[in-house]
Amino acid sequence: MKINDSLNVNKDITALGDITSKGEVVATDTMRAQKDIIIDGNAKVGGDLSITGQSFFEQEIILKKGLLFDNSKGISYTPMSGTTPNKFSYGNKVLGIPEKNCAAGPQPWANHQFGGMLQIYDADPNTGAYITNSGLLNFQTWTGGSSIDASVGANTLWTGKLLLNYFCGNDVSICQGTYGGIVGTGKNVEIGFPTTNIQTALNMGLPLGITKAIDIFNPVINKEVFQIKATGATYIGSEKVNVGPHTDAMLTVSGKVACKEVRVFNNASGYWADFVFERNYKLMPILDVEKFYLKNKHLPNIPTAKQIEENGNDLAKTDALLLQKIEELTLYIVQQQKEIEELKNKIIKK
Questions:
Q1: Which whole number is the average pLDDT over 64-88?
Q2: Apex CA 336: angle with CA 334 and CA 340, to 5°?
Q3: Domain housing 147
Q4: What are the backbone angles phi and psi of residue 166, rounded to the nearest 5°?
Q5: Which percentage of the chain shows pLDDT scores above 90?
Q6: pTM for the full model?
Q7: Which of 88, 43, 97 is closest to 66 using CA atoms?
Q8: Is 343 helix (H, G, I), strand (E, B) or coil?
Q9: What is the pLDDT of residues 285-326, one digit of tens each?
Q10: Which of 21-25, 194-198, 257-261 has the highest average model confidence (pLDDT)?
Q11: Does the residue 229 lie in any domain?
């Protein structure tokens, strides 16, 4: 049956062969097909389109508002309005999704918004299937916070690692904007390539070419005020010992040091002054001591004021020297006391 004009049907039409129409086919009731409906041109549907079987599309699907599943979840689209750009929302169908509330930023609008957790997984490049025990990357939010979590398979405690710029090696910036922020870490922090040690809170492995492990710069005085070098040498304060005999010092402090106890260990033989009391110790005659300090303006073996000014005061060595002088004074006193006793006895005998 061929129709060159419109066909109006108020009841059923049954045909065992083809029905060809060059005009409109209008049905006031349901139109059913036991096999295929083939449309070579466009299909326009004014009402709802319900499909119970599979649908195959060889070209693009053009949707003006989005794609919903069960009328609650899917992909929604909001076209550009004024200066607000196009927006895509993924996940739950929510009206009035808030924009980001950061204090500052280069773009105050979100072009893509996700409702619920976003998960990225390692997939087979041929089938797209999840590769068992491969990496999982989860983005999620909850009341009061947000998280980015990486895991491997079902194990989310030890083997999962979140790698940032692991392959590219570019810089990673955290809270370095104008408003700053607090960066919290776990119980162990590793810098460089150290051997993992869960007993160490901060573990550093400095590669070749790195000369400073820690450096604190004070912009007010435009100087470094704290520094730990790769050798372990530590500088505290704005001034450093760059010349002189102490450039190899492991600790230099520019400023006051307050502490409850200081201990200096020196295992060198004869370092302490107990040798003064040995029988073979030669005590300088007291009058020779007088001649020495009258000429040199300091005691024998004691550093001069100029030496202290240039080289600093070696507390341990100075303590040992002062003890030596005290012990020598003791010997002088004992010697004088013996002479006094001897003179007293002579006077009594007379």
A1: 81
A2: 115
A3: 71-94+113-124+133-153
A4: -70, -40
A5: 30
A6: 0.60
A7: 88
A8: helix
A9: 999 999 999 999 999 999 999 999 888 888 888 999 999 999
A10: 257-261
A11: no
78 within domain boundaries: yes
Residue with tokens 């162990």: 188
- Report how many domains make up the chain: 1
- Please name the amino acid found at residue 215: D
Q: Tell me, rounded to whole angstroms, the distance of Cα 255 from its chain centroid.
A: 31
Evaluate whether residue 119 is within a structural domain: yes
Residue 88 resides in a domain: yes
Phi-psi region of 330 (alpha: psi -120 to 50; beta: other; left: phi over 0): alpha
Does the pLDDT value for residue 155 go beyond 60?
no
Distance CA 85, CA 139 (A): 24
Q: Is 76 exposed, middle or buried (0-12, 13-18, 19+ CB in 10 A)?
A: buried
* Own/partner long-range contacts of 218-224 (Cβ < 8 Å, ≥24 apart): none
Please state, in angstroms and rounded to a whole number, the distance separating the CA atoms of residues 63 and 87: 14
Q: What are phi and psi of 138, to 5 degrees?
A: -115, 135
Q: Which tokens sit at 10?
A: 């108020």
Residues in the chain: 350
DSSP notation for 222-261: TEEEEEEETTS-EEESS----SSTTTT-SEEESS----S-
Asked if residue 167 lies in contact with residue 180, where contact means CB atoms within 8 angstroms, the answer is: no
For residue range 257-273, list pLDDT tens digits in order: 999 998 888 777 778 88
